[in-house]
Amino acid sequence: MKILLIRLSAIGDVIHALPVAKATRERYPDAEITWIVEDKAKDLLIGNPNIDNIIILPKEEWKKEFRNQKWSTLKKAQNFFKKLKRQQFDIALDVHGLFKSALTAYLSGAKRKVGPANGREGSTLFYQQKVKLPTAEIHQIDRNLQIAHGIDVKADTVAFDITLLPEEEKRVAQLLEEFSINDRKRLVTINPYTSWSSKNWLDQRWAEVADNLIRDLNCEVIFTGSPADRAGVIKIIDLMEERAHNLAGRTDLKELAGIYDKADLFIGCDTGPMHLAVAMATPVIALFGPTNPITHGPYGENNIVLSSESKCKCCWKRVCQHNKECMKAISVDQLLKAVNLMLRSGS
């Protein structure tokens, strides 16, 4: 049997779909499992024991080229899907549930195309089988596993199986050695920024928390983030009195997973790296405002979510219209109490 799993983006969402690959492998141990994904999140899949093949959908590349080379770009896309169709998939399981992913399932030519009954953007038009989901709010991981029920896949446990290659392990060790980080102090990673300005906390507060971790709790602190976050992290470190380390923009996703695997605690907001820390079984403290922690919070019981009772919380706005009231209502003291609880319990 040849199975195509479709979850194209983003980083956190791809992490949320990884347990589907594990459960599919357990249900169909002899199947050839292929995952189609966009370039940004592909590293998460490399080395995963539950996935035989990875196909990159070059959507962003096509978008850029289409502006000036419409005909040649359409030919490229046509050739891509012709090649995909030649794989002769038995099943295409779309856990993404958008037009682009459902169209991918349709153009794959799979004999059986399965997706969520509540898919958006007209996606359900492309499915032969539509999986009904609970009306109650459930976490995205549980939602994805519910969709997998459509191909008789059920998960007894949730596992991500993000696997570092030897060269990635070596790179992680080199980065920690560069910062002179060893086992004598507890290691706390902070990822202060997200792709939505509305989800970000305040730089000064991050600086206060990091100073407290280093000065009062005898921790090493590493700030992580994307290349675009590096300047912001420098600003936070400049506000500090103690010495912290800046890894923003210096790791790929698998190396970042390795850093989180070595950490005693992760602190951040609703972003892909937070979910990556969860996948590496690192305890997480997450700050939530405009998004819903029930559906998109850190999965499992080994974590703490801090949020306010602001009336405008869970608005799902990328840019805040209310002066970030929901995020500002989370205080430094609240976060430090959660940190002390986590580090004291050792959980």
Automatic annotation (TrEMBL):
Q: Does the keyword Cell inner membrane apply?
A: yes
An example Gene Ontology molecular-function term = ADP-heptose-lipopolysaccharide heptosyltransferase activity
Among the record's GO biological process terms, what is one? lipopolysaccharide core region biosynthetic process
Topology relative to the lipid bilayer, per the entry, is:
Peripheral membrane protein
Any idea of its EC number? 2.4.99.23
Q: Which UniProt keywords apply?
A: Cell inner membrane, Cell membrane, Glycosyltransferase, Lipopolysaccharide biosynthesis, Membrane, Transferase
Asked if Cell inner membrane is a keyword of the record, the answer is: yes
UniProt protein name: Lipopolysaccharide heptosyltransferase 1
Q: Lineage of the source organism?
A: Bacteria, Bacillati, Bacillota, Clostridia, Halanaerobiales
